[in-house]
């Protein structure tokens, strides 16, 4: 079912090697005997009780929508104390998520060291997966077993899907690309949000790359705006502003997962990214990979489960100049590079961008509004000193208006 992508060179055609299990049509007992370990043989079959629960889940969604300002949100963990949800699960089960996409309903819960996922479809078709939460004996916690309505069956290993080839850029390549981005930003602009980003071109593959959502952009955002008095202007008051930028993302390193073949379950993509089926479908949609009515891929896809980006952090300060320009002039700027990479959410599903090596000129810790405003305020005195000293020395601002904020 799955294929391994092996990169020989960035510019060479990529070689694909068949990996994993083939999806089969057989009786449940035949597949159990041949493939499913004893620890999961009981949970694997779709029972009559599991089939009829779809209507109850639909009623739950309807009740949530009627009784709350907003309906039950997707991409959210379901609190274990939510009685209306736990009442529809086996006794002792820990609910993990409940999502609805049109008439499709997706559920995950944990019970007795087993992760269960269910997908319920309008025609009463059910897809179920089981895997151990913790390896036991010869059974690997990364082995996932899929049951398509007790008719078709499949399996894959999450770790094998995640661990492919790693590709890197040199520091010199990153530096060259960032310089080009500043000179020709139109060649690197992400149309969805304007982020300046340069992913790697890793060659030709028969599968479409599936990425996690791109890191967020902050380009020349004003976090400080106060009037300062300048002795060199006879204590006249002028507006001083501080702008902060995190942009110019250049992909430094990526790990390519194995190619997931046409006909495979979107659940496999979800497992590669440690996320939910709805999020996986969103990522597939962004990548241009369609799924059928039972969420099976209509073409091959290659997840990229790990990426590292080098980015530029910029601090910039302006003062409203009346000595020459009668407008804000760029008085000072300070740029440095940092690194961020994809990490799994702790006690959660999905990934997030985490700073692995902050730029030396950026604030530390979580970049809350308060942190960013405090950081900007700490830079204001230096900007005021530079402008005041320049006016004191020359009598007017001699350095032009600057080359544009965020650059």
Any overview of this molecule?
The chain contains ten helices and 19 strands. The strands form four sheets. A seven-stranded antiparallel β-sheet has the order 3-9-8-7-6-5-4. Strands 10, 11, 13, 14, 17, 18 and 19 form a seven-stranded mixed β-sheet that branches.
Brief sketch in words of this structure:
With about 400 residues, this protein is α+β, with helices and mostly antiparallel strands. The chain is built from 10 helices and 19 strands.
Q: What is the number of E strands?
A: 19
Largest sheet: 7 strands, antiparallel
Strand order of the largest sheet: 3-9-8-7-6-5-4
Q: What average pLDDT do the residues reach? A: 86
The succession of helices and strands, N to C, reads EEEHHHHHEEEEEEHEHEEEEEHHEEEEH
Helix percentage range? 10-25%
How many helices? 10
Low confidence ranges: 1-22, 66-81
What is the CA-atom radius of gyration, in angstroms? 27 Å
Strand content: 35-45%
Which overall shape is indicated by the principal axes computed on the Cα atoms? elongated
Cα distance, first to last residue? 47 Å
* Quaternary organization: single chain
Structural class: alpha+beta
């Amino acid at each position: 079912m799955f294929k391994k992508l092996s990169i020989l060179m960035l510019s060479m055609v990529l070689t694909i090697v068949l990996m994993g299990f083939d999806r089969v049509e057989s009786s449940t007992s035949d597949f159990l005997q041949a493939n499913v370990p004893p620890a999961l043989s009981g949970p694997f079959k779709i029972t009559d009780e599991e089939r009829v629960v779809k209507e109850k889940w639909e009623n739950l969604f309807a009740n949530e929508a009627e009784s709350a300002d907003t309906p039950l949100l997707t991409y959210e963990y379901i609190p274990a104390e939510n009685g209306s949800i736990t009442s529809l699960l086996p006794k002792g089960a820990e609910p993990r998520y409940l999502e609805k996409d049109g008439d499709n309903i997706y559920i995950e819960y944990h019970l007795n060291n087993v992760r269960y996922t269910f997908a319920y479809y309008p025609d009463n078709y059910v897809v179920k997966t089981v895997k151990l939460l913790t390896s036991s004996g010869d059974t690997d916690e990364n082995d996932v077993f899929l049951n398509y309505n007790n008719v078709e069956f499949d399996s894959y290993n999450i770790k094998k899907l995640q661990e492919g080839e790693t590709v890197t850029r040199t520091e010199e390549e990153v530096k060259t690309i960032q310089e080009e981005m500043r000179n020709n930003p139109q060649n690197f602009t992400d149309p969805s949000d304007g982020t300046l980003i340069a992913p790697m071109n890793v060659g030709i593959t028969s599968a479409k790359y599936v990425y996690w959502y791109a890191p967020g952009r902050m380009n020349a955002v004003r976090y400080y705006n106060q009037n300062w008095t300048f002795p060199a202007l006879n204590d006249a008051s002028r507006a001083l502003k501080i702008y902060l930028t995190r942009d110019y993302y250049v992909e430094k390193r990526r790990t390519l997962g194995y190619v997931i073949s046409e006909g495979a379950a979107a659940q496999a993509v979800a497992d590669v990214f440690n996320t939910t089926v709805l999020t996986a479908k969103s990522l597939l949609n962004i990548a241009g990979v369609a799924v059928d009515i039972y969420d099976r891929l209509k073409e091959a896809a290659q997840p990229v489960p790990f990426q590292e980006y080098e980015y530029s952090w910029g601090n910039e300060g302006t003062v409203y100049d009346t000595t020459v320009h009668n407008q804000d002039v760029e008085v000072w700027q300070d740029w440095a590079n940092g690194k961020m990479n994809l990490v799994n959410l702790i006690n959660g599903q999905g990934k997030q961008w985490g700073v692995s090596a902050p730029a030396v000129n950026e604030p530390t810790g979580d970049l809350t509004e308060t942190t960013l405003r405090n950081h900007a305020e700490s830079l204001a005195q230096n900007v005021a000193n530079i402008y005041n000293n320049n006016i004191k020395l020359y009598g007017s601002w001699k350095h032009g208006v600057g080359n544009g904020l965020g650059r």
